[in-house]
Structures are given as structure tokens and as C-alpha cells.
Design goal:
Elements: E1 2-7, E2 17-23, E3 30-31, E4 36-41, E5 46-50, E6 55-60, E7 67-69, E8 73-79, E9 83-84, E10 94-97, H1 140-149, H2 167-175, H3 202-217, E11 220-228, H4 230-247, H5 253-264, E12 272-275, E13 280-283, E14 289-291, E15 293-295, E16 298-300, E17 303-304, H6 312-327, E18 341-345, E19 364-378, E20 381-395, H7 401-416
Parallel strand pairs: 1-9, 14-18, 18-19
Antiparallel strand pairs: 1-8, 2-4, 2-7, 3-6, 4-5, 5-10, 6-8, 11-20, 12-13, 14-17, 15-16, 19-20
Helix pairs in contact: 5-6, 5-7
């Protein structure tokens, strides 16, 4: 038997150190080639580190949250044969998950690589006994799902890599009648004194740092305006009925992207990036729209590039493709960077007003709230209209308040008279 030593890989871009975000294995686990061993976080992305060999884990080189130098020992694996006790070439990192720039809203734990083969140490079955203080591996979405179902996650056997609990494991647990939902009703009123401490590391730490940086460096101000979207919703329904089967269904987002493109022709100062260290504002002709997308590990912002050159259906298809890629962990680094203005939406959870946080170095972000039917006075008559608020934020170091208001009013006019979106 020999030892294969895997060192912290050089992710590129001149990065000298990275943060160890999460282990997917522990000492004693049997691993196979290409199985994901750990997640590491760079300044820009989360990267999966796969195993280049089959073997048994005999030592881990760090703890989650620890910053490790490139080239330091990451993990040691016992293998058949002579092994590799020298400076083992690190495996090629797998795909990337770029942390979203800070925002206080949403629209989805993603793993860029294909699901790793299950560890040989993982057993099958819906239920397992863990120590009371043992925290099972599971994504935030699975933890929330378990909480909603009244399931103690430590009792559920995980079928994912390294025993990670998946959504289907919760389903299997419920199917066998192990859920706390079947406990006496009185249990729902029992006192609880448990506490859980969650270390802020990896993607969540990076998002927190960038959000704090954005609020400290930019002079945020927000502007809210209500918009009558009755006409554009009627147009959307008509287009979906006529072309939905052949071209795909349209949501409101591609119309909003189109409205941004048209409005920015008169307000180019909104489609800009501000380098506050060099004191340079760069206005872009291309409109690269970031579309905020919620993932299990935090907010991600895939970018619809050259929105100015896209039709409604082209924009719709690209938004859908990028959102799915982000949620499935397939989005590339290029797809998660380079936006010039951001569109963020809470969809049905949009509330009445929100205060979006800028996606630095951008100077404007347009936030979409939910559509509600309300009585409105139109030409002296009370009628029911579909109303929606835009809650948008700007960097006051670059954008004046009057310009911001005029910009949003321009978008309002385009959406309320949707034919103007397509009149050149």
C-alpha cells in the first residue's frame, strides 16, 4: 500500500490561497476516482476538488473555513501500489460556482460537477442513528425541507456522496412512516431549548463580505414607482397563446429586459461600472443584464449578454438556460460575471417594496415586486388593474436622483404602452 498526497490546486488567475469551504469525505472513507472530496472558495468562485484515485482517506489537511495556500497538503489517500508521497499533482478542479454580488432579494446548494459516485462507506436505508451533536451533510434547501416536514435530519440516512442527505431521502423516510408528522399533536407544542451554531464560510462568507463591501462603499439610494402592467400582461398572454407551443412561454422578465434596453438608450449613465479606486466611470454600449437567481448556497447572478441584440423569445430562452445552469451548478465563470446592470425579482414573494443592494461595480439595480390587482381610477372610472412596483437602487456617487427617477419613469412608460418597446 502507498499514500497519494493531493495538494491544494492552482485555480488560476494568480490566486495564492483559497478557503476550504466543505469536506465531502472524512478519515476512513473509501473514495473512488472523480468523487468530489472538498469544495474550496476563491475570490470569485466555489470549486469542486475531485479525487484522481481510488483509495481510503487517511488524513485531511485542514478544517472548513481555513484559508490554505496553493500547494499545501489538502488530503492524503491510501492507495494500492507505491502511491505518491511527493508533490502530487493536484486534480483538475471541476467547474465553478461564482458567488453573487450582494443583493437583498431572490429568484437557487448547487454542485457544478456531475454527482460524484457514492462513497463505499455509505449504507442504504431510510433511517440511521447519529450522535445528538453530529450534523449530517445536507444542503440548506434539504434542511429547510426537513424542518418544514418535522423530520429530525440526524435520523435520516443519506444516499448522496459521503452520506449527504438528499430530498429523495426525506421522501423515503416519510414513506416508511418515520416522520415526526405522525407524532402526537401535543409534540408540536413541546418546549425546545436546542441551539445550532452555523459557521459562516465558503459561499455564504463571500456573499456576506461583498454585501458589506457594497453597502460601505456605494452611496445607495432607492426609488420606488408603481406601474400598471395590465396591458403588457394581456400582450404576454396573447403571445403565449399564439406562439407558446412553437417558441416557448414568455414570462414578464424578457419584457423587463427589453424595457431596460430601450430606456438605457436615453440614460447611458445607468449602464455603467464605477472603479472608485481609479475614479473612472465606464459606460458600456453593450447591455449585459445580470438576472438574480437564488441557489441553495446563495444568490447567483448569471448574465444575459448583449441583451440589446436579443428578441423577446431569445431573451426568454437565455434567461431560462442561465437560471437552470446556475441552479444545477453548470454555469461557467464567464456566465456568472461581467454584468453591466442587474434585474432582480422576488416573483410571487415580491412584496410591496424592497431595497435592492447594488451589484458592485454596477451603479444601478432594478427590483421587481409582485403583481397585484387593485382598484384604480382611470379616466374618472374605478376599474380593476394589474399593478406592480419597481423598487430600484442607484449609486448616488454616479447617478443623480432626478436621472434615476426619469429612468424609472421611462421604463414605466414603456411597460404601460408596450407597443413602444418595439417602435424604432
Amino acid at each position: 500500500m502507498g499514500t497519494h498526497v493531493i495538494k491544494m490546486p492552482d485555480i488560476g488567475e494568480g490566486i495564492a490561497e483559497v478557503e476550504l469551504s466543505q469536506w465531502h469525505v472524512k478519515v476512513g472513507d473509501l473514495v473512488v476516482e472523480d468523487q468530489v472530496l472538498a469544495d474550496v472558495m476563491t475570490d470569485k468562485a466555489m470549486v469542486d476538488i475531485p479525487s484522481p484515485v481510488h483509495g481510503k482517506v487517511i488524513a485531511l489537511g485542514g478544517q472548513p473555513g481555513e484559508v490554505m495556500a496553493v500547494g499545501s497538503v489538502l488530503i492524503s489517500i491510501e492507495v494500492e501500489g507505491a502511491g505518491n508521497l511527493k508533490e502530487s499533482a493536484a486534480p483538475t478542479p471541476v467547474a465553478v460556482k461564482e458567488p453573487a454580488a450582494p443583493k437583498a432579494e431572490a429568484v437557487v446548494e448547487t454542485k457544478p460537477a456531475a454527482a460524484a459516485p457514492r462513497s463505499a462507506a455509505v449504507c442504504q436505508g431510510p433511517m440511521v442513528a447519529r450522535e445528538a451533536n453530529e450534523r449530517p451533510l445536507a444542503s440548506p434547501a434539504v434542511r429547510k425541507h426537513a424542518l418544514d416536514l418535522g423530520i429530525q435530519l440526524r435520523l435520516v440516512r443519506g444516499s448522496g456522496p459521503a452520506g449527504r442527505v438528499l430530498h429523495e431521502d426525506l421522501d423515503a423516510y416519510l414513506a416508511q412512516g418515520q416522520s415526526n408528522a405522525q407524532a402526537p399533536v401535543a409534540a408540536a407544542y413541546a418546549q425546545r431549548n436546542d441551539e445550532e451554531q452555523i459557521q459562516v464560510i465558503g459561499m455564504r462568507r463571500k456573499i456576506a463580505q461583498r454585501m458589506q463591501d457594497a453597502t460601505q462603499r456605494a452611496a445607495h439610494f432607492s426609488y420606488v414607482e408603481e406601474i400598471d402592467v395590465t396591458a403588457i400582461e394581456e400582450l404576454r398572454a396573447h403571445l403565449n397563446e399564439k406562439h407558446g407551443a412553437s417558441r416557448g412561454k414568455l414570462t414578464l422578465l424578457p419584457f423587463l429586459v427589453r424595457a431596460l434596453v430601450v430606456a438605457l438608450r436615453d440614460f447611458p449613465q445607468m449602464n455603467a461600472r464605477y472603479d472608485d479606486e481609479a475614479q473612472i466611470i465606464t459606460r458600456l454600449g453593450a447591455v449585459h443584464v445580470g438576472v438574480a437567481t437564488q441557489s441553495d448556497v446563495g444568490l447567483m447572478v448569471p448574465v444575459v449578454r448583449h441583451a440589446e441584440a436579443r428578441s423577446l423569445w431569445d431573451s426568454a430562452a437565455e434567461i431560462s438556460r442561465l437560471a437552470n445552469a446556475a441552479r444545477n451548478g453548470k454555469a461557467s465563470r464567464d456566465e456568472l460575471s461581467g454584468s453591466s446592470i442587474t434585474l432582480t425579482s422576488l416573483g410571487a414573494l415580491g412584496g410591496i417594496v424592497s431595497t435592492p443592494v447594488l451589484n458592485l461595480p454596477e451603479v444601478a439595480i432594478v427590483g421587481v415586486n409582485k403583481i397585484v390587482e387593485r382598484p384604480m381610477v382611470v379616466k374618472g372610472q374605478v376599474v380593476i388593474r394589474k399593478m406592480m412596483n419597481l423598487s430600484s437602487s442607484f449609486d448616488h456617487r454616479v447617478v443623480d436622483g432626478m436621472d434615476a427617477a426619469l429612468f424609472i419613469q421611462a421604463i414605466r412608460g414603456l411597460l404601460e404602452q408596450p407597443a413602444t418597446l418595439f417602435v424604432e
